[in-house]
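Sample intake sheet
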Amino acid sequence: MTALLPEALTPLSFALVFLVVTFAAVVRAFTGFGFALLAIPALVLILPPTQVVPFIFILEIGISMILLPHLWREVDMRGLRWLLPGALIATPFGGLLLLALSAEALRLGIGLVVLSAALLMWRGLSFRKAPGPLAALATGGLSGILNGAAGIPGPPVVLFYLSTPAANAVSRASLIAYFAIIDILGVAVAAYNGLVDGETLRWVLWLVPATVLGSVIGQYAFRRANPGLFRPIVLLVLLATGLAGAVKAMLDILA
């Protein structure tokens, strides 16, 4: 096992990575979002962002393929029609930021984005009606930049859906469909920038069991539990991981 893992990674570090991915998969299957949002801020405390982002993309595509066939009829095609073009245009520009910025700057940005999204959701941001095409296009653009730069396209789109009158089932299905498409683009951009290699595929291989396990647990929990009870826990975790990432990045920058 250790021969296949990256050098200088201890068994304890790998165990932490495995647990983080499992928990993030549980949240994703339960709520429809949160895999990259939870996994990346925690994993970049252990591994470089340029290493984490590509294999998280690939693992999240796998989760979407597991969940989406059962939810396709509930997807909000009207909203995705405007969100996706903005994301598709902006993602390559985010990929350039991933190459241009330092690991510390990316960690700080990731932490601040996660904190901002969690605080806005905690405050109960809401609209009386669904935002129009221009707002959806702009939301998709911001999501695309975050997707290419940090692998976390979720915050803008999650806020977009959770702040509208759409039913929980529609929001969940739409988010899953959105992430399936945007993550495929993210993998393509990462591969074009030379960030997908044998080590990326090795991480995917080792973390597939964590992803499957978390997805099974999350789907079971969604069928059995009240989703409203889980939201405060998810937001608390987002606040904790975002704060931890931002504080560590600031300490590294100031050191």
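Comment: Residues 227-254 form the longest helix (28 residues). Residues 13 and 46 are 7 Å apart (CA to CA).
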